[in-house]
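Justification of resources, computational component.

The compute hours requested in this renewal are based largely on the per-chain cost of generating structure records like the one below. Each record pairs the submitted sequence with a full structure-token output. That output is archived, and it is also reused by downstream analysis tasks.
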Amino acid sequence: MTLTMRLRLTAPDLGASDLFKRALDQALSVRGSRDFESVEAYVTFVQTQVVAKKNARSASRLIEERKHLRPLPLTRLPEYTTHHLRVTCWSTITVGSHIYSVPSRLMNHEVEARRYADIVESWLGDDLLEAMPRIRGEKGHRIDYRHVIWSLVKKPGAWGRGRERPRSSSGGAPARCRRV
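The structure output for this chain reads:
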């Protein structure tokens, strides 16, 4: 038989996010189920069961702190970050450190990418081209095969068992990559 030692971590050993995760885990255990009807139901649960209880302990200090806070600015913060980008000859744009594909007809055009909290929109002038889910983490990519299918059809074996569908009258393979 070997002896093992279990360490019990205290609040100074844990970060704020660890404490929040532990409190959320306990609240979910007491609830009995981790399934929610919608995202809004989950957010409401977290706000009422976890955040409100954690903030109740420091309510008196919060009231004192609010006396010293400056008023909020009158103008709202923007909901998105704007990036002006040139579409590469591979039909991609780089927003932050993430790569997104756009329709191939936009090669060498300048587009505006708007990065919201959960989506990325690509705009050409006043026209919304596409809204894509935002990639999280470090250096990701989102390539939509419909944007690059024209190049895959030309290469034997690149598309595997896929078949080319009839093209519309407005479509066609874009011109080769040109340096501008």
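The two ends are 73 Å apart (CA to CA). The longest strand covers residues 127-133.
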